[in-house]
Amino acid sequence: MNFEIFGAWLAVFFTLAIFSFLYRDNSFYKITEHLFVGVSAGYWMSMFFWTQIQPNLYGRLWPSKEYSESGIWYRIYDGLSIFLGSIFPEGGIDKGHDLNLFYLIPLALGVMMLLSLFKSFGWMARWGIAYTVGMAAGLRAYGYLNSNILSQVKATIIPIFDPDLPFFSLLENSHFNNFIIFIGTLTGLLYFYFSKEQKGTFGRITRIGIYFLMISFGASFGFAVMGRISLLIGRFVELITYSSDDYYHASYWVLLVMVILLIYNAYNEKASAE
Amino acid sequence: MDFLINTILKLGKVDRRWIFLIIAFVVLIPLLFPLSLPIRATATTQLVYDAVEKLPHGSKVLLSCEYGPSTKPEIHPMVISFLKHCFRNGHKVYVTCLWPDGQFLADEALDEVANNEFQLTYGIDYVMLGFRPGNEAVVKGIVSDLRKVYTIDSRGTKITEIPMMDGITKFEDFDFLFSGSAGYPGTIEWVQYAVDQTNIPMSTGTTSIQVNEVMPYVQAGQVQGILAGMPGAAEYENLIGSPGIGTSGMDAQSVAHLVIVLFIVLGNLGYFIERNREKKQRGY
User: Fold this and answer.
1) B219-231 pLDDT, tens digit each
2) Closest by alpha carbon to A185, among A164, A162, A216, A161?
3) Chain B positions in Cβ-Cβ contact with residue A240 (cut-off 8 Å)
4) With DSSP H G I counted as helix, E B as strand and the rest as coil, what are the percentages for chain A, rounded to 5?
5) CB-closest option in A144, A216, A227 to B207
6) Where does the pLDDT of residue A112 fall: very low under 50, low under 70, confident under 90, or very high at 90 and above?
7) Interchain pair A240, B219: CB under 8 A
8) pLDDT exceeding 90 applies to what percent of chain A?
């Protein structure tokens, strides 16, 4: 049996095991759920290590282009190389970097974050977290202000009655669509003005804002349904592929065995309850 | 009439597992027996197509893959079609990934399109720069100095040794960006940290769930068009004249939507009938 066929049988088993939750919680589902979490964590960790930490951190601390056997810095490296040869290959790490000892700072912050595993050193993790939070906040502040506030506000400042536009068009710019954008933006924003009680004329205006928000939520719900159905289609397409002769009818066999075992389990549970 | 009302009320109390089963059949049957329903491109899909068509021959296109196996049915067909469109028009494609899982899916797409269909040369016609962790920091890094973020490609080859990387040092050296995005980090981060600051044109393909979130950027002109979920993928496949997974799933999608709408209508009817009965019983 080659690996492709074995992989197909596994994919069928895991897909049907996850679907089996729709019937009720069961062992197949639990096994698959735990495996998924474990495999995902392992995959992410190895990916992060081999794409970032090894080439971009260690690669900058011990680049091969500046390797020297006599230097004390590379003696530490040679020591590490004895135990972890795949991470620290002989002669330094050749990933195109120059030596940059400033990268000892992120290394130290990373180690400090890992120290949160030990109760007495847990406080050290705050430094690493503080750096990450500060960096992310600073980075995002400008991006959000520019793209989400300024550009979006600019996009709503449109001429309602532009002589070049038609009065009505469903998909293109038109007086009618611009008017809808104007009313929707204004009433939607007014709904979030909480310093005045929403009753009387003001209440009627904010009610229009609620309708606009409801339409938006409805569209989101519609898209969410569409997304879920797309994922279901994706799984079904694979199940259909794997039900063919080339894969020894994997989908049919796994489904049959799973249904029999679930019926057997349900029967046993009923019998023991009685 | 009473029979109809009682049936609707009974349907409202049906075990939800029957609904799951009905949806499963409704999705499965059109996949086995296609109906070939017509597919017409929406304005936002047309915008993506036109944006790629407008690029001069040999343009440098950055493709960023931000999706994983769970969102493969929606985004993967878009990425495959986009690659076909780019290679057919003679563009050079540079692939980056903000999601770790995006890398092996992008590899799969490149293998299918660049290697098998177009027989192109790695490093000359396309390059896989790969995944780098750091979310928006990676985007920011690509904008300021790509060579600090990527010193090697996903195969371990030094960037300096890859012919098509000559003259590429930052985001502004690209002519176009397409982001196949299933969430964070993705399209929105590219808009915020790269496109709005450099004015490099960008299009996107997103999961259905993300469409409402990304659409304001499309309407504001920050993003040139959007492929919205599986229908967007199918429309794009139709525009480039190469039907694929997206197109084959559209019959099932349409029929499933009809059935779901029917369930929603019946559920609401049941709710209103019950509410009216309760009102009558209370005498007001």
Assistant:
1) 899 999 999 999 9
2) A216
3) 31-32
4) 75, 0, 20
5) A227
6) very high
7) no
8) 61
Lowest average pLDDT, out of B34-38, B42-46, B180-184, goes to B34-38
ipTM above 0.90, yes or no: no
Helix (H) or strand (E) segment spanning residue B96: strand B92-97
pLDDT of A56 higher than 90: no
Are B260 and A96 in contact (CB < 8 Å)?
Answer: no
Q: Which two tokens stand for residue B176?
A: 């176009």
The predicted structure's pLDDT at residue A1:
59
Name every chain B residue with its beta carbon within 8 A of the beta carbon of A216: 212
Contacts of B160 in chain A (CB under 8 A): 96
Residue of A nearest to B187 (CA): A147
C-alpha A220/C-alpha B82 separation (Å) is: 26
Of B4-18, B113-127, B236-250, the poorest mean pLDDT is in: B4-18
Write out pLDDT tens, residues A132-188. Answer: 899 888 888 888 898 989 988 888 888 877 888 888 887 778 889 889 999 999 999
Quote the number of domains for chain A: 1
Domain hosting residue A224, numbered range: 163-228
| Residue A208 in domain | yes
What are φ and ψ of residue B14, in 5° steps? -65, 145
Residue A85 lies inside a defined structural domain of this protein = no
> Is B160:B153 a contact under the CB 8 Å cutoff?
no
Q: Which of B101, B103, B229 is nearest residue A227 as measured by Cβ atoms?
A: B229
Q: How far is A36 from chain B (nearest CA, A)?
A: 12
A interface test, pick of B151, B227, B254 with most A CB neighbours within 10 Å: B151
B114 within 8 A of B83, measured Cβ to Cβ: yes
- Structural domain contains residue A235: no
8 Å CB contact between A92 and A64: yes
Q: Is residue A153 part of a domain?
A: no
